[in-house]
């Protein structure tokens, strides 16, 4: 049984097995959630990302994929980095956004994580409309077969929290 929970707050303050990062394909950090995770998690995470770049992801991590690193100083065992699609009004990229959630849960399962915190992937800098981002996120995780016991969506503000709450019902 997997439970979906919602929290309004800062994902870097969560105590879970895995924290999902809305990264970019470089894996070398950025703003938004990515910046916050690297700031609070410390240099170990970036060092692990650099090693991944050097070993397996020379061309970067593809959109819709996910990979785990140490969580550094965060209160978690892993950070799972996933790359959301940039929103496009002219092209339907929702399969790629759904893939971020599926792949992140697959990586969580591979590592044995039982509690996983997700941000609203692509709904910040990447421009995805919040209601649609919430619908895709919730529908996708509900359809996944996983050993994860708690999927916690951590929403930064009231608007995001409301959008997810309407989907979870
Ligand atoms: N905790 C929870 N949610 C947060 C936090 C936080 N600490 N900070 C921001 N959010 P974004 P994206 C919310 O932009 O759209 C980065 O530069 C935010 O309000 O972090 O996937 C990466 O390096 C929004 O609702 O991710 C990429 O280049 C949601 O998290 C790019 O941004 C996602 O916003 C990825 O863009």
Structural write-up:
The chain has 169 residues and is of the alpha/beta class. It is 39% helix and 20% strand. The protein is built from five helices and six strands. The protein has a six-stranded mixed sheet with strand order 1-6-5-2-4-3, with helices on both faces. Strand 5, helix 4 and strand 6 form a beta-alpha-beta unit. The radius of gyration is 14 Å and the shape is globular. The two termini are 18 Å apart. The mean pLDDT is 98. The structure holds ligand AR6. This is Macro domain-containing protein. InterPro entries: Macro_dom (IPR002589), Macro_dom-like (IPR043472).
TL;DR of this structure?
The protein is of the alpha/beta class and 169 residues long.
Count the beta strands: 6
- Structural class, from helix and strand content? alpha/beta
Number of contiguous helices:
5
Which spans of ≥5 residues are poorly predicted at pLDDT below 50?
A: none
State the helicity in percent bands: 25-40%
- For the terminal residues, how far apart are their CA atoms? 18 Å
Which molecules other than protein and nucleic acid are bound?
ligand AR6
Cα-based radius of gyration, to the nearest Å: 14 Å
Secondary-structure topology with pairs:
Elements lengths: L2 E6 L9 E6 L8 H10 L1 H13 L10 E5 L7 E6 L10 H18 L3 E4 L11 H14 L6 E6 L2 H11 L1
Parallel strand pairs: 1-6, 2-4, 2-5, 5-6
Antiparallel strand pairs: 3-4
The structure holds ligand AR6.
The site of ligand AR6 has 24 residues, from strand 2 and helix 1.
